[in-house]
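Example record

One chain of 380 residues, shown exactly as stored in the release files.
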Amino acid sequence: MYMHGGGRGCRKWWGVLLGLFWALQVIAQTNPVRVFSVLTYNVKGNGVTNWTTNSLQVQAIGRQMAFLKPDIITFQEIPQKYAYEMTNFVRMYLPGYTVVYNSGTDGNIKSAIASRYPILRSTSWLARAGLTNFGVSNVFTRDLFEAEIFIPGFPTPVHVFTVHLKSGSTTADKERRAAEAAAISNFLVTAFLTSNFPRPYLLTGDLNETNTNSPVFKALINSATGLFLTTPTEPTTLSPLTFSIQATSLTARYDYILPCGILYSNIASGYVFRTDTLTDRPMGLLASDSATASDHLPVTVAFANPFDIPFHLVSIQVQQGFAHIQWEAAPSRLYSVEWSKDLSSWQPVMTNIKPGSTTAVATVQIPFPLGFLRVYRHPQ
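Predicted C-alpha cells for this chain:
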C-alpha cells in the first residue's frame, strides 16, 4: 500500500507502508525554485526630472512590473540624480523585492537590479575604465553591473550582469561600443570565470546593437565567454524587435538576455512584452503603458532550475529484519537514512551516503518492530 502526501513549509515527502508496522519517508530539505524569470528593461530615464511614483512614466513602468512579476529585473537608464527613488518604486509595485543601484554612471544615467530573492552582493565593474587595450582611446561609457543572487535550490549563487553599451551610429560610436563589448568579454574570461566557474551567470541589457554578426556579438557570444543568444518574440506579432514603441513602428532590437550554457539549455519560456497587443488586459494595466513607460519594450526569459534533481522513492523491500531502499538521487548530494518511533524524534541509521549515479541504494537493519524510516537529503 503506497501513501503520498506533502508536509508544511520546506518539506515534501513520499511514503510507503512496510507490512503492518514500518513506513518509509523521503524528505527533501529544501523547497527549490523550479523556474525563475529574468526581465531586462531600458526605462528611458535620461533627462527625466521626476522619478517619483507620482510620475505617469514611473506608474506605467510599475503597472507592467506588478503585472509581470519577474523574479529578477535589470533596469537600464535610471536617472542618476533620482536613483534612490527606486526603493519607493519597489515598495509600491514589487513589495518584498530588494533593489540595488550602486552601479557606475556617465553622470546622467545608471543601472539597477531588483530581485525577489536575496541579493548577496552587488558590484560595479569596468566603470569608466579605459578602452585603449581594446583599440579605442576612450573610456567605458558606464559600467558592467553585477548582482550575486541566492535562488533556493541552486547549489551556488546566480550571477546576473547588466550593461548599457554606447549608443549611436557613427563610426566612433560603433568602435567604442565594440570596445566595451570586448572589455566585458575580457573581464568574464580572465576575471569572473577563473574564480566563479561553473556558477550560473547571464548578461542582460541594452546593447544598442541589432546586427548579431557585429563585433559586439562576436566579442560577447563565443565559447570563451560561454554566453548564448536568445531571441524571444512578442506573442501576438511574433516580432523580436524592442525599439521604439514610441515611434510609428518598431525598427530595431537592442535589448538582450544572454545566458550561460547551463541556463541556456534549460530555457522554459521567453517573450517581448507590450501592453497594446494584449487581448485580455487585466484591470489597472493600460494599453498605452508600454509607450508611456519607455521607448524600449521589456524582454523576459524564464529558466528551469537545472539543479532541481528528482527525489522519489524507487523501491523498498523488507526481508529478515532489513530494509532495502532505493531512491532517485543526485551524485553531488549527501543522504542519510534515519528512524523514529513517533515521527517526531529521528536518529541516524546510515549517514553520509553519496550516490555514484542517479540512483542511491541503502540496506539498513530495522531497529524495532514498530517505527518509521526516512531518507533525508542534506542541504547543499
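Notes: The longest strand covers residues 35-42.
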